[in-house]
Each structure stands twice: as structure tokens, then as C-alpha cells.
Amino acid sequence: MEVYWVIGYFLVLALTLIYKTPLIRGPWIFLLRSFFPNWKFFHAVGYVPHLYARAAQVNNEGKLTWSEWEHLYPRTAQNFWHLFHNPVTNLGLAQQNLIDHFWADLNEAPEGCDPRNLVSYQMVAHLVDGVLLDKYPDHTQSNLNCACY
Amino acid sequence: MILDWHSAYIVSTPLAIRAMELLFALSLGIQTLEYWRMRSATQGRGLWIWSIQRYDIPQPSLRQFLDVLFTPASFSALLALRLLALLSVAIQGGDLWSIGFLFVSNLAILIRWRGAFNGGSDFMTLVVLTGLFIAQLVSHFASPELGWRAGFWYITIQSITSYFMSGSVKLLKREWRDGRAMTIFLNGAIHGPLRTNHWLRKPWVAVISSWSFILWESAAPLALLDARLAMVFCTIAALFHFLVFWYFGLNRFFWAWLATFPAIVWCAGQI
To answer: Which of A1, A39, A106, B269 could disulfide-link to B227, CB 3.0 to 4.6 Å?
Structure first.
């Protein structure tokens, strides 16, 4: 009996690849999205958002001097033992996921929306502040730039 | 249909239950220990501070409850309790209380990381946890036979669906069919970019690899035709997930999917 259910299920699944259904959005849908997986991994071939940041320091003449843009894109080295314990790489992947969400939020925001109200923006700004504070402890201003390529 | 509870179809029901509980405890244990090591990222200048993330929660009353739950001390206690529950599942098997606690605390942890920390591995971890929870609930209120049957089938359908969907969407993309997508993803991966002379940059290798993944993933439902076929499928899947770990750093995917394999082999033996 199960075999017919399984065949029917995968036929319906194949149909869902052709027919698009409307997207349902909402804060709780977002927070509980693990209950509704779409299982489409590595399918969106295209541009990836990259985060850049720079800091400004006041020089002896009282003028702002800007640092070079820092590319905040996580990279780690391969290691077999990371199969069992891999917090640094996983934090890096989570950071890049956040940049992806920030980019999506920016693109979906209504006209005239202030991005500083977005939680994803505030988190990205907090990330940038943390990185720049480590590298430029005396900086007085910072810029962040998100580019997709 | 009445199940022959102790017949070995390749894996008997008790063996499949034990194998899944052990693999699941290992998978979630690895995740929980990683969360433990990441606690500094959730405090002070860390990226994942709750004082910003709390505005994701629409209801002020729930936000206040989560403010208490996600203080550093409470969150550490939650992780420690999860490790104890996992130890109990690994040593003496799951029960309604340990699995129920892991299920509810998993929801809290997902909310702490804005719905998902590691994407697909969180989804599959929740699938296995839901399957185990279904098994325990139905066992408690009806019968263990029905409970584990429901739990195993839920996990199997979701796991096989994940391969089928992942392969089918690649089949529909030209970049995957001509092999370009794999190089693009590998260059953008956390261990990337590939060296200029890396063997995966050779177009013919990329095309053969891409088509191998597409065909194998899309054919995943065939694994349910026979338990021996399912064993072969799961062996290839383990190798596939190891490669995904090696090139993309996704160690949690390896363990999360491995925990579903006993259910797949068991269900294949039932058809």
C-alpha cells in the first residue's frame, strides 16, 4: 500500500517544480521557517552579496582620513577534525547568511523605508562596528557597503 | 497490516530505533557543543547579541519572556540541560520527556538564531526531532508499533524529498547542466576560491560531477524499492555529505542527514 502513496507523493512533488505557488511571509513564518523546508540547495546560481566596511580617523590637522575598504567575507581552512567540531566555520557561514538576509530585506523593503529600522541592518552595523573597533580602535566614523556580484 | 516487530529486513525495528537515537544524539550533541563554544558571539561585541535580535519578536510579552530565557546564564543552562537529555537518549533511549524537552528547546534555539543557524542542517535536525517526537507521542497514547511507523515514515519522506528536490531543481538550471554552477559555488564557498590549477576547475570534471549529483539525487525515491538498494544509497549519500563538508565546511549537514539513514533503510524494508 505504501508504495502507491510514495509514488503519488513524488509525482505531486515533481509538479510543484513546474507550478509556482505564492510566497507567504510574516515574522513568525520567518522565525519558524525550519518547519517548512523547501530543500532547494545550491540552486540559485548568481550574484552573492558582499559586505565592505571602512573606518575614519581624525588626523593631526583635524580632518577625517578614511581607511581602505575591508572585505568582510568569511574564509576558513579545511580540516578533517572540523567534521566533529566546527564553531568558527559555522559562525562564518551564519554571518554570510545574515548578509544574504540583509540584502533580501533591502530589496523587499517598501519605497521610502529607512533601512536602519531593519533588524538585519542593525546586526550588520553591529558586526561592522566590532570588526572596525578591533582594527581601528580610535575611529570616529564608519561606512558599510553591500555589493552583489 | 500488522508489523513483524522483530524480523530483520536488514535492520529490525529495535535496531533501527537504537541506531537513529544514537546518530541523532551524536548529531545534536555536536551542534550543542558548538553552540556552547559560540556563546561569546552572542554577548558584548559579538554579532548575535539578543538586545538587537529581540526586535524580531512581534509580541512584547513573548519578547520579555525570551529576554529572560536568553540571558547568558539561562542560555548556558539550557544548553547544559540539552546535553544531559542527549546523554539520556544515547544511553537509555528516548522517552516522551527527553524528546519533548529537546523538541521545545530546539524551537527556542532556532528563534535565538533568527529561525535557523545553519539552514538545511537545522531543517533536517528538526525533521528527525519531529519524527522522534511523533514516535514517542503516538507510542504513549496508542502503540509503539504505530508510533515508530509514523515517525520513521515522516523522517524518510522528508529525507528522500530533500535529495529529490535538490537534484530536480539543479536539473532545471542550465548552469548546473553545463557544469559551471559547481565551480561558481566552490569559489564562493568558505574554503574557496579554488586554486587556479585545481582539478575541479577542469570543465569535463565539473560536467561529470554535476550530472552525477543531479541524477543520483533525483533518483533518490528509487532507494525505497528495496532495503539493500537503500543501504547502497545511504553509503553513497554519506560520501556525498562528506564531500559537501570538505568543500563547503558544512559538518552539521553530514550528521543531520546521517541520522535519517536508519529510517530510510527500515522503510525500504517495509515496502
So the answer is: B269
